[in-house]
Every structure is written in structure tokens, then in C-alpha cells.
Amino acid sequence: MPAPPLDARRMRVTDDDRWDLLGARCPACGHTVHPVRVACVRCGRATEVVTLRPVGTVVASTVVHTTRPDVALRPPFGVALVRLVDGPVLAAPVREGEDPAHGDRVALAAFDVGEGDERRRALQVTVAGS
């Protein structure tokens, strides 16, 4: 079965069938964001696509108990805000069975979510070293 589609503003598949976490960095002011944006949110200048390291620190977390019907994950599931070592903060679901706390070092891993034609690749938070 082929790999599910990726959001090209968030990730890309590498030649060795791995993935890169993508962001945008402003060459003028140095601000870095995720996902990719064509213009800097701080100064408005054009950005460059960069590869971000998929590791960081939890700055907040919660448990989702209710979702809309179109959300592929079924509650309850954890969500963490992660400040990447490269600067951006992003939200991602937490791997089932893990419970990262504020200040924990974590990694982002790709996983498949959804079924059939709705199947796609997304990111999830994993406790570093697990």
C-alpha cells in the first residue's frame, strides 16, 4: 500500500523514504515558523523553506475528550504544544499510552491517521528516547 499523502507545507518524503519536518525562515529577520509560509509573519518579507529538527520541549498539554465528526482521531487523546529546538511552537497529538509533561524533552514522529481515501500522514508527539 503506498504511503499516504503529506501536507507539503508541513513534511516531505526524503529519497530514503523518511520524512523531513518543514518550516520557513526569514532571511531578513531570522524568524522561523511551521508550517511553511511564503511571507514572514513578523516583517512581511519572503521566506525560505528549511528543514526543522523534529525535537523540542513540551510547553503545554491537554486531553481532548470531544471532537467534531470529521476529526480522524477518536477521543480521548492527548495534545501537546511543543517548542522545537529551531524555534517554532506546534501542536500535535500525543502517541497513545504516553503522557508528556511540561518541560519534557519530546520528539515528533510521523504516523498514519484515517482510513481508506481519508488516510494521511501526520505528526505525533513521543517522549524522547521511547
TrEMBL record:
Xref: SUPFAM superfamilies: Nucleic acid-binding proteins
Domain (ChsH2 C-terminal OB-fold): give its ranges.
50-108
What Gene3D superfamilies does its record include?
6.10.30.10
Domain ChsH2 rubredoxin-like zinc ribbon: from-to ranges? 21-46
State the name under which the record lists this protein.
Answer: DUF35 domain-containing protein
